[in-house]
TrEMBL record:
Residues 1-15 have a biased composition (Low complexity). It comes from Gossypium raimondii (Peruvian cotton). Residues 1-31 are annotated as: Disordered. It holds the Pfam family PLAC8. This is PLAC8 family protein. Coiled coil: none annotated.
Length: 240
């Protein structure tokens, strides 16, 4: 028996097999350690902020450098000046916001596509609140409560700069509200509501111009038609 053990220990094939098994064990240990290090929170990106388009904001890394907010295409009071597409001129937007704000609001929500329903589902409730506010209170004080979430949805969808960020960029104020993401969003939503209450017609026109710059109207968003043309008849010539 001792001779057999000595032969097995001195066998070169056995030593190679043992070394291969040890290498495989080392690889398994390395893989297990990497799996443990990559926790589910790290793999899913928990603890990081996200932009409106679903991009991670990982602070302190090359991939996750905080993205700057985009500015609105026009200012709040820039009612005239540009003609983009058919039924998308600034003059048309200004007239709708002044004469028929219910139509402009319904068109904005329909073009944005963030809320379910058709044009009438958004235009009719706005019209009812508009008439009640003007009849009982003398001014349009109820419709802004219904319409201001559209401004918030536009700002989030296109990652646009809010009022607090604009004030901080221009004058250095409201900086404390921008430190916390939740507090910043609450402040921006309050500013969206205040914009609709105190400058309602201009806010609707502002949103209408921004949507017409960025999104085509669903009624004019025609899809291209692919026409298949069969090949012509081919004839094979007989060589001489």
């Amino acid at each position: 028996m001792a001779n057999n053990n000595n032969l097995e220990e001195s066998s070169p094939l056995l030593s190679k097999q043992v070394s291969v098994e040890e290498d495989e064990k080392k690889n398994l240990n390395v893989n297990n350690s990497t799996d443990v290090a990559a926790s589910p929170a790290a793999r899913t990106g928990a603890g990081f902020g996200w932009t409106a388009d679903g991009l991670p904001l990982v602070h302190g890394s090359v991939v996750g450098e905080p993205m700057g907010r985009s500015q609105w295409d026009s200012s709040l009071l820039a009612c005239l000046g540009r003609n983009d597409e058919f039924c998308s001129s600034d003059v048309e937007v200004c007239l709708l916001g002044s004469v028929a704000p219910c139509v402009l609001y319904g068109s904005n929500v329909e073009r944005l596509g963030s809320a379910p329903g058709t044009f009438a589902n958004h235009c009719l409730p706005y019209s009812g609140l508009y008439l009640i506010g003007n009849s009982f209170f003398g001014w349009n004080c109820l419709a802004p409560w219904f319409s201001y979430p559209t401004r918030t949805a536009i700002r989030r969808k296109f990652n646009l700069e809010g009022t607090c960020e604009a004030l901080n960029r221009s004058g250095g104020c409201c900086g404390s509200c921008l430190e916390d993401e939740v507090q910043r969003e609450q402040c921006e939503s309050a500013c969206d509501f205040a914009t609709h209450v105190f400058c309602h017609a201009c806010a609707l026109c502002h949103e209408g111009r921004e949507l017409r710059r960025r999104l085509p109207h669903p009624g004019f968003n025609a899809q291209p038609v692919l026409v298949m043309i069969p090949p012509g008849e081919q004839t094979m010539g007989r060589g001489d």
